[in-house]
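Q: What does the assembled structure look like for these inputs?
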Amino acid sequence: MNLFEKHKETLQNAIKAIHERTFFAAFPEHPKAYGEDAPGQGEAQFQQTRNNHFGGLNDKDATGWIGEETSPYTQEKLGVKYPEIDVATLVRNAGKAGKNWRKASPAERAGLLMDSLDKMKDRFFEIGHATQHTTGQSFIMSFQASGPHAADRALEAIALGYHELTRFPENAEWEKPMGKFNVKLKKSWKPVPRGTGLVIGCSTFPVWNSIPGIYASLVTGNPVIVKPHPGAVYPIAIVVACIQQALTDNGLDPDICQLAVDTHGNPVTKKLAEHNNVKLIDYTGGPSFGDYIEKLPGKITFTEKAGVNSVILDSVNSLDPVFQNLSFAISLYSGQMCTAPQNIFIPEGGIKTAEGNLTYEEVVQKLAANIKGLVTHPKMGAGTLGAIQNPATRERVAHAKNLGGHVVLEPEDVQNPEFANALISAPVVVEVDATNKDIFSEERFGPIVLVVKTKDTGHSVELARDLAMEKGAITCGAYTTDAGTREMIAEEMEQAFTPVSFNMVGPIWMNQNAAFSDFHVTGGNPAGNASFTNPEYVNKRFVWVGHREVI
Amino acid sequence: MNLFEKHKETLQNAIKAIHERTFFAAFPEHPKAYGEDAPGQGEAQFQQTRNNHFGGLNDKDATGWIGEETSPYTQEKLGVKYPEIDVATLVRNAGKAGKNWRKASPAERAGLLMDSLDKMKDRFFEIGHATQHTTGQSFIMSFQASGPHAADRALEAIALGYHELTRFPENAEWEKPMGKFNVKLKKSWKPVPRGTGLVIGCSTFPVWNSIPGIYASLVTGNPVIVKPHPGAVYPIAIVVACIQQALTDNGLDPDICQLAVDTHGNPVTKKLAEHNNVKLIDYTGGPSFGDYIEKLPGKITFTEKAGVNSVILDSVNSLDPVFQNLSFAISLYSGQMCTAPQNIFIPEGGIKTAEGNLTYEEVVQKLAANIKGLVTHPKMGAGTLGAIQNPATRERVAHAKNLGGHVVLEPEDVQNPEFANALISAPVVVEVDATNKDIFSEERFGPIVLVVKTKDTGHSVELARDLAMEKGAITCGAYTTDAGTREMIAEEMEQAFTPVSFNMVGPIWMNQNAAFSDFHVTGGNPAGNASFTNPEYVNKRFVWVGHREVI
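A:
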């Protein structure tokens, strides 16, 4: 049985789920689903790789071995070294390997790529450890975000790519009546790949944010060069190794997907991005480099930069479940998610609840108390916060008191019992007036929460909408029990192309975006120009070319 | 019956045809299909409008009446005046009108727009005359290109737009198993329009090239400002009037589609294009202005600029039908089509035919003789050539003898018996060596044919491919009886994202691109960044935004 046939049912289910947008997951998120031996094997593999050369990557062109990752939990070097390959070689290899890859049919490509996900599945636990000790996420978050959730996002890209690639017929007869006779043409259409793709990763979500672009470019026939952040190489190196293995197993050139590793001191990203033969660029990271990427001439770009995410508090049934949910959304991975809320807009007149009105001050105090309760909780705190990937983030939290607002909650001192050296930062909550726009109009990456006192909900929405338009937003949370207000918020935030999570309570948070159902980033505001995974995300990677002939 | 129900079957047939890419036409191309009275009524309407204010456009904000069209057939001013509205007013009107248009459902928008095409159908003959006396096309070409063929292209945009807009559900329940319980979310998705669209027209195909962008932006919920070339306003003014009538009939603001008329001396295109509130730009015209449009920051652009179209001669069964076909493709509307062939690559060793080999010289002489025969044919010549829209085109033909090649055929002196003052230019054929790349590497708009002597077919293909990559190409013609060569040509030209018309003979030419089947311009080479009508062409005009709520 060929790989396409083997995976056909899953592919068809994924295509169906994409178009119904109901719940679907090909890769279970619970670690127990992967068998008793998997956790131990994954940890052993992680320990073996530490202070070692990373195995399984095509290293025929390596000029040396480099790597400088540090664990946010131990402050120790991981010591993993990866093949260093120069830019000209990488691009030349991609061009050469791409010649065969473009000839593979969409079904062949989809089958092979789905097989690479099966190989990745066997390494989810290793990926989890590698992610934990590069990003600072907790192990369970690392496992899920870089493992099953990422694999589902990859499958989503394969499935929508396959669907679009096979959307028009390969051949058709076109017969035009001309009165007394007919003109007949034999026509054919081909989705021709754009050319070499470059996928530039970030340090906080090295797999989840890179894998859709990798698989979207690959399924549409483009060779890919994966350029991870030098601080988070290991997790995505495993994915690239799995893809190379699947290629080699099937007699294809592993250079169809290459890993480009660099160091902080000798970065290669610009050289790659500006190379004339690189046609597609996927990018996750800061806005200023993202703006540079978007403006590169002659490139088709897919960016996720940053946004300022807002929460609009209008009215609730009961405040406790709301703030339990919101505190978790704020604290999870210390606000180092692009989807984490930053600005909480609260009307000066307070908010309505089923148990009576709460004043503005009461709401702010309750929010601070809830966050404090969560992060100081002996069983919950350290695991929710994880560790800080970049020391600059911790500095930013420390300096939040100097922003010009009133500090409502100082960052609590939280210890991780498992990792005494973990770099930890609990959220700081700062109250600012709505007139101090410059304070809350910038993304302040990390666990920094700005409570903004507004005139009323209309004012809150106006500020959130305008901010999303000007600075971008990936998510927005809103709490209201009033149907008209709900409709108003939805319509206003749509003008800023920002999705709204309404009345989130329980074990689901505004930070989370599910494959097959939630479009991650809309592509309509400055937070990014692409969306996981809408039709454009795959269609822009190839060109329909039709030939025809008189018959 | 509402408009959507009225047109539903046609819409569904169009969507089906798009995905099967078989022959489909909702608007018959034969003038007789429109009844006995239609031709006379159309001509009467044309005569009434000449030297008059153009009626039927919303002119409440007109600051004056302007118009400076000249007939290429009579050299007389048409004398038609259109409302002049200033840029700030146009953009403000669009923003205001757009607020209601975005609230109309995809079905409401599609139904209303299809109704506007029915109104346009009733004016196909007037559109034909208006097109003839602005572009210089023959009447029958004007009728077909600006009438039924354009309306079919509009329907194609409506149909694919409607299909994409309704591709994902408006609402769905998402239920995730969490072990002992399920999390349930109510989700909704909306295709949110990008914002005001600007459609910039050209002087040679004022309707056919503008109508896909107009309808694509409208069906996806964006208000549109149509900015025609000042030399060819009348034909598209009729279309805008039909759309405004359909809007008014249905209680909607006619400013959802506005006409922005300017003059050569006081152009407004840049002011419109650079306006912050203009988000989408469709453009047809010269490459340098097109490059400016593509580089405008913050705009989503759809361009058709220009290309250098090649014909590759390798081998034929019989040369006569080939050159009859090719001569017509060259001469039709005096090469003023973006799809017209310019460079004819012929191997120095000549070409194989079923009747024996022909030397290079014989092939060139036969081509020249065929063109001469066609353009001097008393019944065929003048009608095929039509008239020259822009005197600069005629100058270019006159100067072709100075290009540095060897003139094989001087432009014949052709008279149009109906229009003594018609500006006419028959093709000039110039022979150049393959080493003189600078001569044949530029688009030389108009009836200028360059015969390029190459080493062999491989050399021809290499030149055609590289030219298409560097300068763009919209079409390519190739003649070969060898299956391997055919495959090689297809693959090489695919690398330049250029469609190939193989072995065209009979009443179908490489210049023609049929709605619902042929992608016009691929969007993959410098000839343009968009394609009539691939999924990207409509998808880029709106953004998927999803909201969700815990239930």
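The mean pLDDT of chain B is 97.
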